[in-house]
Amino acid sequence: MTPILSARSASVGYAGTPVVHDFALDVSPGEVVTVLGANGAGKTTALLGLAGALPLLGGTVEFAGAPLSSLARNARRGLGLLTDDRAIFRELTVLENLRLGTGEPELALGTFPALRRLTGRKAGLLSGGEQQMLGLGRVIAARPRLLLADELSLGLAPMIVTALLAAVRQLADEGAGVVLVEQHVRLVLEIADRAVVLRRGRIAFTSGARDLRHDEQRLAGAYLHDPGPIQQGVSQ
Q1: What is the average pLDDT across 102-117?
Q2: Domains and CATH numbers, the chain
Q3: Sorting pLDDT into bands at 50, 70 and 90, what band is 225?
């Protein structure tokens, strides 16, 4: 199957200084890949580079068979980016948020029924979990070919995180490619197909998600720099 996203020797950083080096990744339609790593490993920087939100300092990234372009142009071609600020318009209502662009609100409301009773409420008045459902719902409503999401679970209760990750898995099962940066290691490995572990801006290893779930020692050693048990609260 032809990858929807393909990165080769990609370097990404800020002000001309690389933070992520020689990043390589293929993501196929219907596949969920999670990018894991300790604080400062470069996960968010890698994700922004894959989205076109940060310029490449080396290497190549292709989306849907063509070289990566600007974030706005990538979005028009079917790339959905959800950053850790939840990407909502706080002064607009839930329904107004869902109607922005070319999205189909019913897709979001069908995925997150809890939003139906909140359609007239301003997004800024929602709880953190409701805001994250709205942010992800906006992306889902646009029927993305590729979803890149950063820290869906940040600050949220595990029950909400489980619902968000289930929606991501459903999106992939319907044919989208997905790349997730996530702090809830065990939960994301339950719905992911593969994992990429970053260490100091470089790929330490890649693994099938199922294999990694059963290899805590390997994950702890490369991900947490600690031979102890896997923790769930590591960001960026």
Answers
A1: 93
A2: 5-78+144-223 (3.40.50.300)
A3: low
